[in-house]
Amino acid sequence: MTDTGSRTSRTPGAGCPAHAGAVRLGGLEYQQTPARLYRELRREHGAVAPVLLDGDIPAWLVLGYAEVSYVTAHDELFARDSRRWNQWANIPEDWPLMPFVGYQPSVLFTEGEEHRRRAGVITQALEGVDQFQLSRDCRQLADQLIASFAGSGQAELMNMYAHALPMRAAVQMCGMPHAGDATHQLVEDLRISLDAGEGDDPVAAYMRVGEQIQQLVKEKRQRHGPDITSRMLQHRAGLTDDEIVQDLITIIAAAQQPTANWICNTLRLLLTDERFALSVSGGRLSVGEALSEVLWLDTPTQNFIGRWAVRDTQLGGQLIRAGDCVVLGLAAANTDPQIWPESHVGAESSAHLSFSSGEHRCPYPAPLLADVIARTAVETLLERLPDMVLAVEPEELSWRPSVWMRGLHALPVEFTPVMQ
């Protein structure tokens, strides 16, 4: 699954001067209050801070809005091909972050004209998705999921709803059946790859994902349909099956886990913030405003790894050496006090970095499709269960430990049972 390229012995290491005072990303405090860590890092180091990844591997976390925007706008300085990394000699094959950084022939790691070619195929394949039909499909999926628990008067929305709906929508758009053992295994393996819990093996899970998508591409090569996979196979760019497999993994992963967290984080906001409701369905502020606020304040993808410095350069007052890993702190950038005077963070604009920026941002129209899925999921649930309330106190809700994804362990709710 990985090709790390030429592994060099040039390793700055956690103890070098450049990483003096580096903070480990992770831990209980980070899990519950990442914003506090971002504030402390800003105070100590400025807009770019030295951090330690799993196994005390050094990297740079970019906290500033302007600095993240600069990195994503300058591919000639901060490129996506991870084979540049100067730490490969220190990385074990089973490193938990290998699914994120191990070089693969996917659109994520391409550069220049090759990236534009691959991203162009994805864009045209996604443009073929009828957004009105997607909304209708998502409403139908939502109705089916809600019917499975509506009569009980209680539900755990993260797994029973927020996680399941975008999963079914994503695989359906790609031409897979939205139900069945193979589909459920695919989604579980994607979750482990992106957000591994204790005892999970993200590397093995990612390998299984690849095997399932290979089978899908093989089937669609023989029998085309009105789906993303078939459109990619028929595109004039003539991508190989291996290239399409890798890019489909990227599409499905981006559509499923982040969108699930977007839905659940929005429901949490609606159920816990009095600005949005006397009752949830009668709120003074809209679902659209809640969705937007979550992208600013609880963005589903907190941090993104990464970019690799092409040559020695300065960023945010720090000397970044050639081959250093740069982590995009999307959540930190969205709450950068430099863009929010007087500590006021609003949701009035769409200039957040939750879908990144620059040439490697989420390709159009992916953010629009994610919005259709998330908005339909939230609105349908509120229509069907208008008196829904949290089944626990808000402070009892806990966040998953991932430093990459921002999502709850569970969102338990209660409501008046509805007989279907």
UniProtKB/TrEMBL annotation:
A GO MF label: iron ion binding
InterPro entries membership: Cyt_P450_B, Cyt_P450_sf
Membrane-traversing stretches: none
Superkingdom as given in the UniProt entry: Bacteria
Family: Belongs to the cytochrome P450 family.
Listed name of the protein: Cytochrome P450
The organism's taxonomic lineage, starting at the top: Bacteria, Bacillati, Actinomycetota, Actinomycetes, Kitasatosporales
